[in-house]
Amino acid sequence: MYSRYPIICFIFLGLLLVVSGLPRNLETLSNLHKTNDARNFIVGGRKAAEGQFPYLVSLRTPWGAHFCGGAIINDRWILSAAHCTFFFDIPEIIAGSVRSDAGGERYAIKRIVNHENFDFNRDPFTDDICLLQTNQTIQFNDLIQSIPLSRNRIFRSSRGVIAGWGWNEGGLHLDPENFFPVVSEDLNYIEVSVLSHIECTSRLWLFAMYLQVNHVCTFAGRGAGVCTFDSGSPVVVDGEVVGIAAIVLPCATGIPDWGPRVSSYTRWIDANLRNFS
Questions:
Q1: What is the pTM of this model?
Q2: Sign, Cα dihedral of 17, 18, 22, 25
Q3: CATH of the domain at 112
Q4: Quick one: 246 and 168 in the same domain?
Q5: Phi, psi values for residue 80, rounded to 5°
Q6: Residue pLDDT, tens place only, 93-151
Q7: CA distances from 260 to 69, 80, 122, 130, 155 (A)
Q8: Lesser CB count within 10 Å: N end or C end of the chain?
Q9: CA triplet 146, 152, 155: central angle to 5 degrees?
């Protein structure tokens, strides 16, 4: 049953090399843990305190590793990025921990609902949004809470925050058992500027061709920003989810990060919550 996962890992790692601009040479790749390359590393962020982001969850691979972030939007549903479920089903999430390797409460996933227009092979930038329904009711406490969705589009620059367990200053490490990249053990966060569509377009240069009106764009400066395995984490402004971290091409090189704008999808979210309640 699990024999296909190592193969998937290699395919996924190859895609990461293309997307993040990492070296294709395996000898160079194996030595990346000795470097401090900005492309490997949330980058330029700070370590999160316990309970600081109670809405954030870790989506786990079938073998238990962190793969993506997500936001608790009610006691049964998680909001994340659709590409996080493309390579394999997500069997469970972990809530209530600032560590990727310990603590927290585990909840099995009953249902995954990707946007019907999302097609990773055809266009991974469009409608990259999904909902995950837990098998049991999520028990809220000081470390586990839901977060409301923003239903208003932000047109002017605002300050926001993104947290995740993605690659950081430690560089790239590969798990010797399955060759899957090892993520940050500690939850990190970074404050970002939410840019207007016009300003984001001017900063994206050639990548602007992939920016859409239903995207939200964030910028933290050169040497800072979200990175691989921060995907799916919510972009939060004034205590509401305004977007989803999804597109980082490449990491922390002075190019904005962008992903689905939540206000563009609230009707889709509400409809699915009703349909599968």
A1: 0.82
A2: positive
A3: 2.40.10.10
A4: yes
A5: -155, -165
A6: 999 999 998 999 999 999 999 999 999 999 999 999 999 999 999 999 999 999 999 99
A7: 14, 10, 17, 10, 15
A8: N
A9: 125
Residues sharing a CB contact under 8 Å with residue 229, sequence separation 6 or more, in sequence order: 66, 67, 68, 164, 165, 166, 167, 181, 183, 184
The rounded distance, in Å, linking the Cα atoms of 214 and 128 is 10
**How many C-beta atoms lie closer than 10 Å to residue 20's C-beta?**
19
Same domain, 180 and 259: yes
Same domain, residue pair 142 and 202? no
| Exposure b/e, 223-246, CB count within 10 A at least 16 = b | ebbbbbbbbbbbbbbeebbbbbbb
Instruction: Name the residue range of residue 105's domain.
Output: 54-146+265-276
As for how many domains the chain has, the answer is: 2
Same domain, 119 and 138: yes
Q: What is the pLDDT of residues 20-49, one digit of tens each?
A: 333 333 333 233 333 333 333 377 789 999
Let me know: does 73 contact 244? Beta carbons within 8 Å.
no
Q: What's the chain look like in SS3?
A: CCCCHHHHHHHHHHHHHHHHCCCCCHHHHHCHHHCCCCCCCCECCEECCCCCCCCEEEEECCCCCEEEEEEECCCCEEEECHHHHCCCCCCEEEECCCECCCCCEEEEEEEEEECCCCECCCECCCCCCEEEEECCCCCCCCCCCCCCECCCCCCCCEEEEEEECCCCCCCCEECCCCCCEECCCECEEEEEEEECHHHHHHHHHHHHHHCCCCEEEEECCECCECCCCCCCCEEEECCEEEEECCECCCCCECCCEEEEEHHHCHHHHHHHHHHCC
